[in-house]
Amino acid sequence: xxxxxxxxxxxxxxHMDDTVQFARxxxxxSHVMHLPVIHVGKLVGTIxxxxxxxxxxxxxxxxxxxxxxxxxxxxxxxx
Length: 79
Description:
Blueprint: H1 3-6, E1 14-15, H2 20-30, E2 34-39, E3 42-48, H3 49-53
């Protein structure tokens, strides 16, 4: 089986106003444990399933969880 048959390039990023519940559902639907979070078209970090499971409320917007985001591994021209 080829990688192209296994991998999907259609993983949608989350937005700062998405809720914890929406993010968990998106992870389950995409079968991933981390998703990128964007704000005004720019990557602000990634959120993990573990962080979402530790959230105080399912209705909490991701913007309130920003301290738990992982930073981008490569930023700007440093690639």
